[in-house]
What does this fold into?
Amino acid sequence: MMLARSTLVRWSCALTLVAGCATAATDTPDYSSVPAWTSRAIPEAQGAMRTTADGKREAVRYKGWTTRDFGAFRTYAYADTRPEPPVQRAVMPNGVTGDAKKGRALFLARAKGPCTGCHLIPGDDVWPAGSVGPDLSTIADRKLSDAYVYQQIYDARVVFPNTSMPPWGVTGAFTPEEIVHLVAFLQTLKGPLPPEKDPDRNPVTRTKPVGFGDNLDPTNNPAVLMAEAAEAVWAAKGPTGKACADCHEGGPANAMKGVAARFPKFVPAYRRVMSIEDFLAVHAPERTGTQMPAQSTTNLAMSILVKMASNGMPVGIDTSSQEARAALARGKATFYRRVGERNHACADCHTPETGANKFLGGRLLGDAKAGLTRHFPVWRTDRTEVWDIRKRMQWCMIPLGANMLAADAIEYAELELYLTAFDVGKPMSVPGIRH
Amino acid sequence: MVTRRTVLGTLSTLGVVAATGVLPARGAASAQALGQQETIEAAMKRLFGGRPMKDGGSLIKLDMPLIAENGAVVPLSIEVSSPMTAANHVKHIYVVADKNRIPVVTRVALTPAAGQAYMGANIRLGETGDVRAIVEQSDGTLLQVKREVKVTVGGCGG
Amino acid sequence: MASDIGKVRLRIPSSIKSDDVVKVRILVIHPMERIERDKQGKIIERNYNYIDKVLVTYLGKTVASFDTTQNVSENPFFAFAFRATDPGQLKVTFTDTTAGKYEGTTDIKFS
It folds into this structure.
């Protein structure tokens, strides 16, 4: 039977419509098509776990990072289908007398929160408090019951279902006794407040950070020099007898012009979304035999070199394929996915509706929706290291209390794809420079 | 006659010097290192004795962020109004950080060939505290300005 | 990359006229090792590798010099000024406590 062309067209449109409807109706991303991925990262970047000599499980992470196993808490892994910690109604424990002095010490303890990361309280020693959460300096004036304040700290979701406040009692970050002390302390915070001596103490009036100047100035940003070292790698012949330069002629600045502006992208050969760093980790050894594992100095330097060739060019991501759109949907879900002991999602800090452009302790929180990806990799002045966006994501896991995934994990790549969508049309400027 | 006890006494004095961590690498012939672990008062006394220090506010521009994002890299620049002639020029600019365990940061020696009394550097600060710019003119006059720089930290305990 | 130690980058304005006072920016890759302490807080005695001298010469004569300590940041950045009287070489020499010596030079031309 021969179908008229118009009929065929109508059928295919109908099929697309049906498929589209199906996706909209369920509104859940499709995880079935995500392949398994063996990490091509350096050992300390693989998100691996190990057992110590005395039988304890600990994490293999970068030098200086805690080895604590956060296995009890949800991660970004697509295979991790554990729910968020259950919402719990709390009852104040009997037989504990609240000690306001202990409570204040707990409030300020960096090993715990610190609560001052989000909440301002009075005190010359309070430096630097954040403004992500409400100012608690006169909270006792509101005459809230101890039980109410206790519940707020133990699990604020009972009171505010969409809160960013971690469920401190549910996860055990604070013990019930400690929360009683915190309550006792908060109930001492009455007005009127003395006049503020120093406008920088209060995050609302604090001077905003000025940054570290021209990121592309080689006398300012050491990462620019790192890229120069990568030029030698570009030209050097690997074990297969080939160099990058052999296939990519004309030098990296010419051969790679515009390439990085189109990453991350879905790479059909590997059936996954890849950043430049992910791609280098497979492409370099495949063609030249030179190993360039994710998070190696060579990989980062090469990534900077390749990306610099696109500086000034607008970021663009290809969402024309079904695979790319599916990845984007998964990346978005990850952005809103709550993980870790803190039960936080990226969205809890990095959108204007939540914490963006407010202080978290002394750090101004970035706004993902303003576009953050186009200056990565960045030179971290605090660490004297180059960080790509994957290391930045891995680092976030530490204060969140979640085990990190491999730097080249597909989950991170698809999250990066989602984040890059906010940079579309904006000019690349690599390497960046940040604290 | 040098007794054994005297010799040991001398050695232990050397031991104290070594403990400051500034043992010169190139032999005892080189001058005592500029940076010493000491209090700010001791540093000021060591560098300037009891010499009078004038307020340099009208001549010295000390440019630093009010809040340093981290203590590892704190940008600083100093500009001093000076004709920079042979007869009248800035001879030295000192940078001192009161709260650093080794307070002296750097000493810049200038000549009229510099054309302008200007310097910049990225410095380390251990914690919130005063940073001083001390200028020594060619006639020996000392001028000082100081500013508190707050060193900030992140909020997540991480 | 450890092999980067001693790499120097120097920046001057693109156009310099005779007798201009020129500001110069310079960066050198160097660890500027910080003092390490043991668990009791005592300084671990060893020879720390940090730049302790920066010498600026122009036309062979000293213009400025920095005596520096471990309080200068890793990969130190410095800025200074000089009066560009004649075309010729501007040289900055860094010396560290391991007798490492690193140089950055540029030829001053008038335009």
Remarks:
- Chain C has a mean pLDDT of 95.
- Chain C touches chain B at residues 21-23, 25, 34-35, 42-45, 47-48, 52, 58, 61-74, 76-83, 97-99 (CB under 8 Å).
